[in-house]
Every structure is written in structure tokens, then in C-alpha cells.
Hints:
There is one protein chain. The chain folds into 2 domains: 142 residues, no CATH class; 235 residues, Rossmann fold (3-Layer(aba) Sandwich), CATH 3.40.50.150. The chain has 16 helices and 8 strands. It is α/β, with parallel strands linked by helices and 395 residues long. An 8-stranded mixed sheet has the order 1-8-7-2-3-5-4-6, with helices on both faces. Helix 15 links the parallel strand 7 and strand 8. S-adenosylmethionine (SAM) binds next to helix 9.
Amino acid sequence: MSIKSSMKHLKTIKQKLSSRTYWKLQIKTAWKEATEAFLQVGNLLIQSKSELDHGEFLEMIENDLPFSSRTSQMLMVIANDKRLSNTNHGSYLPPSWRTLYELTKLDDVSFKKSIRDGTIHPDMLRKEATRLRKRYEYELDEKERVPFVKKRNTKFKIYNEDCITGCRKRIDSNSIDLIINDPPFGIGEDDIGTRYSRCEDNVIDGYVEVPVSKYEDFSYEFMVEVERTLRKGGSAYIFSGYQNLRHILNSAVKVGLEERNHIIWKYSFGLNTTKRFISSHYHLLYFVKPPVSKITFNEFVNNGDPSQYLDREDVWTIDREYKSPTMIKNQNELPTKLVEKIIQYSSNTGDKVMDMFLGGFTTARVALQLGREPLGFEINERAYEHFKPRFHKKR
Ligand SMILES: C[S@@+](CC[C@H](N)C(=O)[O-])C[C@H]1O[C@@H](n2cnc3c(N)ncnc32)[C@H](O)[C@@H]1O
């Protein structure tokens, strides 16, 4: 560089240094880049997750990175949130990954509103974002009970029929995204009422059990329908007690469903037993119809809360729900939380969710609340007549 041109260069730099606009632009760009850097790290994590073996990825995030695996999870959630990568929002966002992570938990409507009215701003602190989220969650919870669903679905197909003949007649092959079956366990009709220590006065009559001697055929027949009606890659969750578990497992193999997990649902206050340990779990078998490449498995349920590692373990501790003694109930009812968890992990809004043994209609109710389309059967006319008019009402 000649002396003349380097003088010119120095002059330009000096001019730049004295320009407020120059500095303003530099600082604003760097600030924006700080937010973008978090998105970029999150994207790299997501990419590496899809390219590395599952075990290798876990080892990397646990051992090789300068931040914890919890932080990795949060950064992936941030990068996955289209609202944060939307360039129109860039200048409003705080360059703090903890605050950004809190913002991912906002539903769309609250997020947009908060950008518009300036509640989300570049100086926003994490505690402010947490307060904002809690406020909106509370409001949504009041309105909908289940947060993050903007519009309730209103379509459903529910029949008072035997589910096996009903399915054959009414449900197309390869049409259902998710099946949740909580069949009678084949443990003897008269036995149930006496082993639960609860008031049976308000339990709906007519619960249909299946005799132990017929359980093998019964489970095979309904599993044939599960396999036929599921779409490719669709999921089926089947509850079972220990007594007839083998029949369900054998049937699944025979019909060609692939077992993904053998989940244990642990609840407190189990069935009273004599001269053996108290039974306080059920089996929840999670199958898919191959090919597995088409599975829906939403890992970011709970909005990617870091506790999702625990949430993804295959022992689920979920208490049964308290039902007031005056409330009419089915003989067995699954807890809402348990059904919510299955539906959120294994289906998306608008998906068809079938329950062949509706009982107290827990699956149908939760599916509707989460914007899915419920289908199902209940053979007991009394249960059907009682629960059908109620399950789609807002609670
Ligand atoms: C364990 S309960 C289901 C409870 C349900 N998951 C809930 O949360 O309320 C099983 C239900 O299946 C019904 N059922 C038994 N055999 C059936 C069949 N072949 N077709 C349809 N429903 C049947 C029973 O009457 C009973 O209500």
C-alpha cells in the first residue's frame, strides 16, 4: 500500500470512528448476532443429533461440549422455534438463551401479542419472561384446561358397539394415526369391585369383562384390528395387567406390530393383595406399525423442558385421579395426565385417535381437547349413554 493510499484509508477509518451511525450499526449488528449465535448452536445440535448415532450424540452432549446437556436441550428447543428464527422478530428478542428458552413456552397468540405491545423487548430478563409465561398459561388454563391448544376439534365418531365387529364395519384400513386401548384385563368380573377399597355406588353398571379362558382369542382379534386400521408408522398403546400380558405380546408379534417400549405405569395405592406384594403398576405396551421411519414421536412435549429426559423414561409415575364419591364413573378410568402424555408424544393436531374400549371416554375427551379427532367404541350401553353426551363439553 502506498503512503498516499494508506493515508486515505486512515482518514476513512477516522471518519468512520467519529460517525455515530457507524457505531450504532456495529453495536446493533453484534447484538443481533448474539441471538443468532444461540439459534446457530441449536441448529448445529439438531443437525448432529440426526447424523450421529443416538448413543454417540448423547455422549457428545454429556462429555464433549462446553455446556451441560440440559443447555443443549434448551438450545435445540430455541432453534426449533420458528418464531425465534423469524427475521421480523430478531430486533425484539433478548440475546440471552435462558430468556429465549422461556419465550418458547408461550403459545402463538400470546407470543405475537407480546411482540406487538413491546412486552418482549431486547432487554427482557429471564424472570420477566417466566412471569409472562405464567400469566398466559394461567389465563389459557382457565379457558381451556389444556394449554397451548387454540381451537378445539369438534369432529368425532363414537359408537355403542363391540369394537371388533365395529372396527371391521366402520374403520378403514391404514386410516388411524394413534390407538390407545385400555381393554378389560380378563381378571374376572366379580373380582374387581371387591379388591378396590372404594365406594362402588356411583360406578356405572354393565362393565363388560372377558373371561380368562377367552382372553387369548379376544386379544388376538382386537390386535388384528389395531394393525389393520393403523396407518403405516402409526402408534398403538395397549394397557395390560400382568395376568394376560403374554397374550397381548404374542398377538402383537403374530399381527406384525413392532414393540417400541414396554412402559410401566406406576401409580400409588395399588390393588390390595394377600400373601404377595401389592400390585401398583400396569403394563403399557407401545407398538408401531412398520415402517418406523414414519413414526410420530414428538420429543419436545412439555415445550422441551429439560426434565423431558425424565419424562422420556419408560417408568411413568402418574397417580390415579381423585373422583368425588358422588361423581358417576366407569369401573376403571385412566388419569387425564397419562392419556395427555401419550397423545402429545405420538400424534399431532388433527390426527385420528382411536380407543376401542372407551369406558369413561377419557381418551376421546383428551383427544378433543388437544385438537385431535377421536374415534371409538364402548360396548356397555349404560356407559355409552352416560359419558357420550358429556365428554365433549368444556369442563
Ligand atoms: C378398562 S375400561 C376402559 C376405561 C377407559 N380407558 C377410561 O379411561 O375410562 C374397558 C372398557 O371396555 C368395554 N368393553 C369390553 N369389551 C368391549 C368390546 N368388545 N367392545 C367395546 N368395548 C368393550 C368395557 O365395558 C369397559 O368400559
